Amino acid sequence: MEKHCIHVEKVFDWVSRSVKLMKRETLTDPIVEHNICVNICAPCGEKTIVWSAEEHVHAFGTVTVVYEQGYGQPMDVFMNGEIVCSLREGESRSLTTAQLRDVHVECKGNGTCVGRVCIQLHQQLDRLDDCEHIRCILTDACGQPILPEQMTCRVLDERQTVHVMLPNGKQVALQKIYVLVETFIVLQCTRKDGTVWKTKPISLATIEDVLLCAPPETDIVCETVVADCKAVLLSTTCPQILVSVHLCQHIQSLGRVKIELEGTTCTPRVEQQVDICPPHHIPSCPI
Questions:
Q1: C-alpha–C-alpha distance, residues 28 and 235, integer Å
Q2: First to last CA, the chain
Q3: Helix, strand or coil for residue 148?
Q4: What would the 3-class secondary structure string for 192-236 be?
Q5: Count of C-beta atoms within a 10 Å radius of residue 160
Q6: What is each CA distance from 214 to 17, 171, 249, in whole angstroms?
Q7: How far apart are CA 75 and CA 117, in angstroms?
Q8: Alpha carbon distance 59, 73 (integer Å)
Q9: Helix (H) or strand (E) holding 4
Q10: Looking at the whole model, is its pTM more than 0.70?
Q11: What's the CA gap between 274 and 277, in Å, rounded?
């Protein structure tokens, strides 16, 4: 047997730990996002209401009106009580407004005009008292959903050596490592009427310390393997939310070391050929 030296990565220490992030947040601008489509079947000569906002709610969005069928006369479209456009049969129009209270239509002539109104609606609420279900979603800073392993878990440069007494009475020197843990969450609320509002990304962060065997020239690797996010509504009038994110993290100290192994030089074997043709014998003539 011959001796060989190779470089390998060694795990000097490895801990699994729990981290809890908590934050009490006042939501200043909960926004309802909702797509509404309403069919128009309005008698001509009358102003017909198509949609109106809830009382004391700031609504904004894009309104699309399609005039499908009438009696050759135009259809007027009103937003917030003012006429914004007049459509002929087969025409459509999209309008965006920062303040939307109501939408009306009025047809000229006799009979009934037919069409539809679709609204990409955003409503800013001042109360959350009809929130039936709150969902907490891990995201990045832009609000895009992420997996736990994509969370920020960054080791800070500073290391401090501390002396620790083990249960067997032996004293050892360990390194105190500081870790920055950061994530963003988006809260999604489903209301009683089926509409959904979402918050902007909310930041949660903490700096934790952990004791590791981490000699000089070792690298610290931090990974979040499990993340559980919960949120509860504390007040509907402010409104206030309490968020708790419970994490499970693995933190390792790694370094490259040289080890000696015993072994022999490995050479390839000769491939064994297998004859796939079965033996075939012709009997001799009986002479």
A1: 12
A2: 64
A3: helix
A4: CCCCEEECCCEEEEEEEEEEECCCCCCEEEEEEEEEEEEEEEEEC
A5: 11
A6: 17, 16, 17
A7: 13
A8: 31
A9: strand 2-26
A10: no
A11: 9
**How many angstroms from the chain centroid is the CA of residue 212?**
32
Q: What is the C-alpha to C-alpha distance for residues 265 and 2, in angstroms, rounded to an integer?
A: 8
Please list the rounded mean pLDDT of every run of 10 residues in the chain (287 residues): 83 91 78 79 88 78 91 88 91 91 88 89 68 86 90 87 87 92 88 73 91 90 92 75 92 89 81 72 65
* Angle, alpha carbons 29-30-32 (nearest 5°): 130
Which among 80, 120, 126 has a CA at the least distance from the CA of 99? 80
How many Å apart are CA 281 and CA 277, to the nearest integer? 12
| Cα dist from 276 to 279, 281, 282, whole Å | 9, 16, 19
Q: Which of 49, 130, 63, 47 is nearest to 99 (CA)?
A: 63
Q: Which structure tokens are listed for 216? A: 């000089």
Q: State how far the Cα of 246 lies from the Cα of 72, in Å rounded to an integer.
A: 64
Does residue 46 sit in helix, strand or coil? coil
How many Cβ atoms from other residues are within 10 Å of residue 287's Cβ? Answer: 3
Other C-beta atoms closer than 10 Å to the C-beta of 62 total 14
In the numeric block, which tokens belong to residue 186?
């988006």
Cβ-count burial 81-107 (b if 16+ within 10 Å, e if not): eeeeeebebeeeeeeeeeebeebbbbb
